[in-house]
Design brief:
Strand content: under 5%
Oligomer: single chain
Number of strands: 0
Largest sheet: none
């Protein structure tokens, strides 16, 4: 089972804030 890099998938840095991650997720799903 491959480990997914969710940060890379969303295009955010590992030290991104929760708000940045939420925005990237919303942009990705639309």
């Amino acid at each position: 089972m491959a480990v997914k890099d969710y940060y890379r998938l969303l295009g955010v840095e590992r030290d991104a804030s929760a708000e940045e991650i939420k925005q990237a997720y919303r942009k990705r799903v639309m």
